[in-house]
Amino acid sequence: MWQEVRSELRPRGLEIVTVALDTGGAEAAGPWIDLAKPEHPALVDEAHLLDELLGVVNVPSGVWIDEEGVIVRPPEPAFPGRVVLAELDLPDDLPPRLAEMLAESQKIQVEPERYLNALRDWAARGAESKFALPPDEVIERSRPRPPDESRAAASFEIAQHLHRNGHPADAVRWFREAHRLQPDNWTYKRQAWSFVDVLQGPTDEYEGDWLSDVRAIGAKNYYPRVEL
Amino acid sequence: MILRQLQVDPAEFERRTGWAIKPEGACKGPVCVPLPESEIDRLDVEVLAQRLGMALVHDESHGIWALGPESGGHALTSAEAPDITLPDRNGNQFSLRSLRGTKVFLLAWASW
Asked: Suppose B35 and one of A59, A165, A199, B39 were both cysteines; which one would form an S-S bond, judging by CB atoms 3.0 to 4.6 Å apart?
């Protein structure tokens, strides 16, 4: 769907760059990129650099960068006008856990049309758009980073390094440490869970799982509300 | 960033953290943090960790360290976008800086 947005906004001077946060690299993200047939740059971030450099903690997250290379909106939940999953009629014959996950997903609240309209406004009006924020506000709206979150990032990086280099069992304690130190970082949790169970369900390795953790905070709190 | 010793190459440090080593210290955008003079050419990771509030974590059994991002403030120290260079699915490197002059919408997603 981002390709559709790209086709609309590229003539107005806006380029889309997608970045897959995947420790599994191109092997994991590549098939999805192929399916989307993007005309825009579609990159793979196997080290989750965007987590560290920008403060991304969940996906999808969008960042707006102006013509001078200045960030005018920091990472925030970003949807391309629609959320297909929210529109689906769920079949009755789904495996029970998958059905529960999809039903919970449909309770997650986002405002995709409002977000896309803001992006359209910025593409057309640039710095005059009310949605383009001044630098001080961009910094202030980016995530606070206490020392524990730096330690979480370092722990996650060791975990990824060990996982990629043939030591997945040794990686688990570092993934767990990252989860303990920064429990609201969904990219840390979902990346680790997905290595054990594609549905990110309960496992012996990790204390949490997607469905339980979302229910614990309430689906409506899964993404912070975007302040436009 | 992953380290096998407690010294780091300045260019690699900048690529991975966004902090450039200059005569005035470690700088990101308009923010500069002074470093001891001897640290300008030879970066001692423990000094960087202490000065920039970067966590330094050690896995003894594999002989590696990881240096986390700066802390104590916000994830963004500056609104200046870091020069992110990443590969596409075929391994071709792409730099965000190549899009200067164009508005960019950067979207993070994942296959999981």
From this structure: B39
Contacts of B61 in chain A (CB under 8 A): 170
Residue with tokens 């590549």: A30
Q: Is A39 on the interface with B (CB under 8 A)?
A: no
Distance between CA atoms of residues A80 and A68, nearest Å: 24
Q: Where are the domains of chain A?
A: 2-82+111-140, 147-218
- Which residue among A14, A67, A70 sits closest to B105, beta carbon to beta carbon? A14
Q: Which residue of B has its CA nearest to A33?
A: B89
Chain segment A102-155, per-residue pLDDT in tens: 999 999 988 889 999 999 999 999 999 999 999 999 999 999 999 999 999 999
Put simply, the answer to whether A14 touches B102 (Cβ < 8 Å) is yes
DSSP H helices in A41-95 = 49-54, 84-87
Phi-psi domain of B28 (left: phi exceeds 0; alpha: psi -120 through 50; beta: other): beta
| Half-sphere exposure for A111 (CA within 13 Å, toward CB) | 11
Which tokens belong to A25? 């690299």
For the segment A53-102, what is each residue's pLDDT rounded down to a tens digit? 999 999 999 999 999 999 999 999 998 877 777 777 888 888 889 999 99
- Measured CA to CA, the distance from residue A34 to residue A41 in angstroms comes to 12
Report the residue from A44, A59, A74 with minimal CB separation from B76. A74
- A14-21 and B103-109 as β-strands: parallel, antiparallel, unpaired? parallel
- Cα distance from N-terminal residue to C-terminal residue, chain A: 22
Under 8 Å between Cβ of A78 and A115: yes
| Tokens linked to A214 | 């979302």
Burial label for A1, CB within 10 Å (0-12, 13-18, 19+), is middle
Q: Which two tokens stand for residue A100?
A: 């529960």
Q: What is the pTM for the complete model shown?
A: 0.94
How many whole angstroms separate alpha carbon A164 and alpha carbon B74? 29
> What topology does CATH give the domain A2-82+111-140?
Glutaredoxin (3.40.30)
